Task: structure prediction
Amino acid sequence: MTINFDFTFNAIAILMGLLACSVIGYFAYRIYQKQVGKPKVWKILIVMIIGLFSFSINWNMFDTMIKIPILPLGVGTLYIVLKGKGDRWQTYRSFVWLGFLANFIFLLSTLVAVPIHHAIYHESELSAYISTVENASITPIHPSAENLSLNNKKLLEQLHEMKQETIYSDQWYEQTYMNADSTNRKERFPYQLIGTSPKWGSGFQTIIYLEEDGKGILLSTSKTQLYFRSEISLIEEGE
Amino acid sequence: MTKKKTWALAGLGVLGLLASFMIFWFYFAKPVSFLTNGQLVKEINRTFPEASASVIQDSISVDERHVVVPFISNEDHYGLSYWVWKRHKWTVETIDTKGEPKIWKINRKDPSSFHLVWNIHPQDQVSFIAYYLIRDRGYQITEGIENYIPRVQMEKKVSLQEKSYGVMELSDEWQWLMNAVIEVELKQKPNLFFDPFTPERNLFLGWIPYDQSDKETFPEGSVNGNVYSNGKMLIEHLMILSKGDLEIP
Result:
């Protein structure tokens, strides 16, 4: 049996990245038109890529990694190399600086992409993480799991009905150890839910656990955990 | 263009073609047939004389370019050797003088390439091995944000009745969980500096050897072997567990 994991990607980030590239391309075109000495296009491209190199600070803002460029290393290197070679530096100067500026344009596109992503994909809604369920099934990850199977129809119905609840992590942990001796422990979340895919273009990656009574879903994303409960059980006897 | 230039260009073209052919042949060409038992013994003993291999038990293809060869030594040890097709040659990457179970991570980011490998000495009287994928239960509260980590305990039993050795892929269930964990981890740190050695954070593999009467036994003759490794392969040790480490509901 094989299961194809959907290729998940962040559509907003890709779109904004493309937009940033076209803005940079537009600037390059403007400089090219104004300039007297016209270098070859592939040379301009290389010079701009050199310009991208910079010493930068990485900063984690609202769970998003942001790169703030500080020192234009590429620009400096090119200046040293071309300094003594006539007017070549003059020809490429604007383009290499544009390469450095491109760092900020990409930074700006990330800053715009994050709130748009938030607005389109609601991070507190179960349906953002579990969107298609046709190929979904459950698999035991602990011996206390019973030989039950998922009711895909009920899961689909419950996606919008399930309520977010508080995670009582320490209580769950301790209850497990209080109620039974060492060899008789039960796991509260003994199933993994597999074969679902998140909303198209969201780029969400999750590990999804199902509670022993079949009514709770614990989602582990790259940033946080979410817990949802339904009124009815999503698992049943037999295939 | 002068004649000289034309010749120079033609020469360059031929050279380029030859170089790309050589590179393809050297790095990408398909493997030729595997070595004979005689060649294997010679190569093992040349690489790691301590292994003193004498009998080749089998050659098990893991995939087109990776082969496991269990062998018996002159001192009656049951050992393992790991072979890779690279630079147009079959090379022995690791030799283990004893055969306690290891996991061979051929592609460290892809659990479907992971294989359990073992060669247990018959004198240890191991009738079957139970393999485990385990993660400890845990919880975390930081600044009011709570995380609960469910315990993972998955089991796979393998009989040793017919052969002392074996190579086994991880089961689908294990792969599903490991893949999900790896993908979430990659999302957390998509950097180049992704730590390859603990992609499945906190997940670990273990084993329990059982005898004929289903009792735990200690495989005296299969542990604490000496290992030769050229350091390029990811072959990891498996912890020996006991029933006390397990939860049995």
Residues 88-120 of chain A form the longest helix (33 residues).
